[in-house]
Amino acid sequence: MSQNGQATTRGDLVRAAVLGLLGTRGPSSRAEIARSLGVSPATVTQTTKELLARELVTELESVPSQGGRPARLLGLVRTAGGAIGAKVTADHVALVSVDLDGTVRSSRTVPFDPAHPSALNTLCDILGATVDAHEGHLLGVGVGLPGAVDSQASGVVDAPTFGWDRAPVGPRLRDALGVPVLVDNDVNTLAAAESVYGIGRRYSSYLVVTIGRGVGCGIVAQGSVSRGSHGGAGEIGHIPVTADGPVCGCGNTGCLEAHIGESGLVAAARAAGVVTGEGGMTELVAAAYAGDERAHAVYADAGRLLGRGLAGVVHVLDPELIVLMGEGMTEWTLWQAGFEESFRRHLMPARRALPYITESWTESQWAVGAASLVLASSFDAQAAGAQGELVRARLQDVSAAGAR
């Protein structure tokens, strides 16, 4: 992607996708790589030639082919580089260290209060300790947050739920850590990870929709994440769906997120008498699985609102696929009936067959998504401005392994 937020071509991520494929599927032939990524054999030949020259992949044994010369398998040189990913939330930071293919070496969570006056100093300390503990050649640090980031290159953040207004997250972290730091909206980081390691290897235009504490959307068009002119594209949680609805964390009323985000579900459950006193999501989920019809109605209403809202987004963006993920996926069976009926009914007839998939969820996925900002920018010549250039320079300097 370019600094002005416009999408770049799918080819910009082919190198990263090859590495991701080799890392997740193991050694593969050039022909298998071309088929899996949906690119031409000539593109794969040229791409792997570059990766071999940079000692990021290596040729392994030959395997029999159907006529002609035996096919040579390519394998990943995992130790050529790694990245750190951090997902910043309202009460903690999730951290991972990953290899070049996205394989998680280590993970942990650290308590964090973004509303504290010294929050940025604390974040610098948390990530500084993680950088110090990283083994091997570190390419950079990726950070995902629930807010608008003007660009990965600068990393200035507006996060209303944190009370952050033009917070200089990127500059502060770069000064403190001494390594490249890329910052983006947390859902965009998941979309970037899908482009390199997931469904984006088969689709070029899709939506990654997250359901949990909030509601977010990453937009992938022609193989690249679309961020908008100010880094705020995809904020579907703040689509107004009711005129006099509950107050949202953004300050408006009646937003989709205010209705179906975690706090909205709890409020609806409390109003229905499902949740009492200080009870929260645990009580709501338990009631739903115990067969409480009021709890089922809360989820059905939320599913219908989500389905109607996403139908509108589909009409605007025309994706090939929707990927649903996030903390809320653990209870997707409770959402599904209301969502499916509403989503299909509100789509125009020609689009009612649009597929969607759900992905299982772990806490570390947010942080792995953040790390993928670094790994993807390693091979995208237009990505992340000066920070992307620094990442690419560090990748080329494999002899600097062990240096910060």
From TrEMBL:
Q: Which Pfam families does the UniProt record give?
A: MarR_2, ROK
Domain of life according to the entry = Bacteria
HTH marR-type domain: residues covered: 16-60
Coiled coil regions in record: none
Matching SUPFAM superfamilies: Actin-like ATPase domain (SSF53067), Winged helix' DNA-binding domain (SSF46785)
Q: Which GO terms describe its molecular function?
A: DNA-binding transcription factor activity
Q: Which family does it belong to?
A: Belongs to the ROK (NagC/XylR) family.
Q: What protein does this entry describe?
A: Transcriptional regulator, MarR family
